[in-house]
Amino acid sequence: MTPYLALLLVPMPAMGAFLLLGLGPAQFERRAIQTIALLGAVAPAVVMLPLGAYCLTGTCDGVQPIFDLTVGDAVVALALMLDPLSAIVGVTVTLIGACVIGYSIDYMAKADVADLRRYFALMNLFLASMLCMVLAGDSIVFFLGWELMGLCSFFLIAYHVTSPRAIAAGRKAFVITRVADAFLLAGLLLLFIEAGNVRLDVLIPAGIATEEVRRGLIAFLLLGGALGKSAQLPFHTWLPSAMAGPTPVSALLHSATMVAAGAYLLARFAPIMESVPLAMAVTAVMGAATALFGAASAVFQKDIKRLLAYSSISQIGFMLLALGLGQPEVAIAHFVVHAIFKSLLFLAAGDITQIARGTTDISAMRGALWSRPLAYLAFVAGAASLAGIPLITAGWFSKEAILSAAWLAGPFGVVLWGVALASAVLTATYAFRPVFTGLTRIGRPKASLGGLFTNLPILFLAAGTFAVAPLVEPIMNFLGAEMPHGPKAVELVGAAAPFIGLGLAAALTFVPTLSMRVARARRMRSGIRIDSIYQVIFVQPFVGLVRWLNGEKGGIADPVGTLPILGAERLAAAVIRPFAHDPVDRGWAGFSAGMVRAWGAGRRMQSGRVRDYVLALGLGLAAFLLIAWGTTWR
Amino acid sequence: MTSGFLIAALVLATGLFLVGLFGLLIRRGVLFQIVSLEVMLTGPALAFVAAGAHHGDPGGQGMFVFVLVLAASEVALGLALYLRLSRHADTTDSDTVRELRQ
Is 0.85 exceeded by the ipTM? Predict the structure, then answer.
């Protein structure tokens, strides 16, 4: 009995809630569905927190095997693993998951019972699969969690099944992440071929020991998987459209699960990545480019959920930048901080916009300070952390660490530092645009508060954004790294960045000519139209091909299937017709007519009763056994 | 694992198989026929595990997993047929669907 046995209990309640709600045959009342979902979401946190505490006191490096299967030389050993990385990420995921599912109880209260059941079943499965991935001690459980998450995100993004837009968004997310998943699968399989074992503690050293070309291939395949799941530059288009799902789904998808999975993957396989300098450089460059691109696009968004989506893209870009600089510990610290403030932003924005009759336009924030004070103040706390207001918010500490790490990485790093600094300025700009919009007062609004399940998670997360601030450095130390500190001047410039952004945000909100210009910047709002480019390059040719194959464009329907048959018919007419009506043919026809009579006789044997057939089968088997026995008797 | 144990296990497996076959023959309800099929499947599965254990070869357990998968897919098909039968023809008697032969 080791304490690591408790690891098995972490994903289990959420999985149980999914099984009960998703597959259970019983009918449930609304209250029962909510209770089951809440229990399934809170119980993992209850199990995970003591495990995290145990990790702080004792040795934190345990593997709990689940199932071993030895096939020849290869070993399939499923296991869960607890180490500082999985402990920190696991605790974050369970807490955020509990908060978001708790919040959903109020948010989804108006949905009808069948929809509610589907929603909570999928949310719990989502949480369980992320936990499986985080705690995985082998590549199979890891990949299983990774894929289940992709599936759940498809179902949850397409949650409003009556809306074609939602279905299209879900399909887009699924297809794009699937392309990236193929990279990950290829990378993991190559690693498995090298190691002959699926356990991560064997896979990673085996990966490092591989010869250079293969190691590079593996590293780039893993990077491809991470870029897709984390919605980084070439693959980022699915995330802004994923806003078609309910807001709590976005809160879970953007903060602790799904998009963070790519960063976690790279942190988990960091030793392999670090042995391929080129892959590290590409990671850092992609991260910095995505951070700048996401932040710049977010500034021009009109819809608050799309703004937050681009913000997630940009923030994960920061994490990838840290990973590319060889600082996975800094990336994970930023992951924890980002998970807290991003879920807070989504939950608070969801609460405010739900009051504003469902529109998620930034103008729905107008007057929020007076009409929904608690959620608005929580949103301000989240925005402050996102912008990185110095000293009080957690966001500042983790972002400062990333900036310092970039500065300390040599001349190449200084360029990245410049890009990251520009992104940090823009981050503060887009973070505070909705905040300033909320200050404008309209009419004489009456302040109102949401229910208990709305406010409790929001308050908890809002407190978290400040409470984690002094914990950022201990988290990095716990993961086994020192917090990087650049020169004082660099840190001061980093601290000034949010305030410049703040000023820009105020200018964009309150100066009418500037806000008009932002409203008109269609090109930037669509993320420099990368989506449309993909539509033209990938989607339209494919749709055209499918329509051609369908015969919708004229010509023959299904040419691939039809043409060989037409050819075969021609051939038969040319070769067989000359030989018709000769003796051989007549003999053949007589034979086939005889077959018809034989069929008539045979048909009488077919009673149509299952039991008769079973008897015949049984007797046949007995006869065979007798023959076998008789021929092998000595 | 002595060979006496192996023979005992094989006899038990044969017995399970025959019990299932007997049930399949005398029952007319589709549901009980599916249950009998499951009993029949356990016979060979037990034989695989026993033989694997006797020879110290994990292949026997592997085959058992295959049999489990086979049984699960077979039950899924069988239950679907059962549901269609009971809803469409309002009966669960396998003999009444004789008309299917035409």
Answer: no
Structure confidence at residue B76 (pLDDT)? 92
Q: How far is the CA of A433 from the CAs of A173, A271, A360, A361, A440, in angstroms?
A: 28, 40, 14, 12, 12
Find chain A residues with C-beta within 8 A of B24's C-beta: 611, 614
User: Could A607 and B98 be called an inter-chain contact, meaning their C-beta atoms sit closer than 8 Å?
Assistant: yes
A141-200 pLDDT per residue, tens:
999 999 999 999 999 999 888 888 889 889 888 998 898 899 999 999 999 888 888 888
User: What's the alpha-carbon Rg for chain B, to the nearest Å?
Assistant: 17
What residues of chain A lie within 8 A of the CB of B28, using their CB?
A: 611
Q: What is the pLDDT of residue A358?
A: 63
Tokens of A328: 């996975």
Instruction: Sketch the domain layout of chain B as residue ranges.
Output: 3-90
Residue with tokens 């391929």: A276
CB contact at 8 A, A424 and A523 = no
Residues contacting residue B83 through CB under 8 Å, at least 6 positions apart: none
Q: Lowest-pLDDT range, A442-446, A534-538, B40-44, B81-85?
A: A442-446
The residue of chain A nearest to residue B18, with distances taken between CA atoms, is A618
Sign of the dihedral through C-alpha A350, A352, A353, A356? positive
Q: What is the pTM of this model?
A: 0.76
C-alpha A606/C-alpha A251 separation (Å) is: 62
**Dihedral sign for Cα atoms in the order A51, A57, A58, A59:** positive
Phi-psi sector, A59: left (phi>0), alpha (psi -120 to 50), beta? beta
pLDDT digits (tens, 9 = 90+) for A358-415: 677 777 778 778 888 888 899 999 999 998 888 888 888 898 899 999 988 888 888 9
Return the amino acid letter for A582.
D
Considering only CB atoms, B33 lies closest to which of A607, A610, A618, namely A610
Q: What is the CATH number of domain B3-90?
A: 1.10.287.3510
Which residue ranges of chain A lie beneath pLDDT 70? 1, 356-358, 444-445, 579-580
**Do the chains contact at A610 and B25, CB–CB below 8 Å?**
no
DSSP 8-state class, residue A447:
P
Which chain A positions have a beta carbon within 8 Å of B58's beta carbon? 69-71
* Nearest C-alpha in A relative to B17: A618
Whole-angstrom Cα distance, residue A72 to residue A257? 36
User: Which residues lie closer than 8 Å to A16 by C-beta, 6 or more apart?
Assistant: A40
A-B CB pairs within 8 A amount to 30
- At A128 the pLDDT is 92
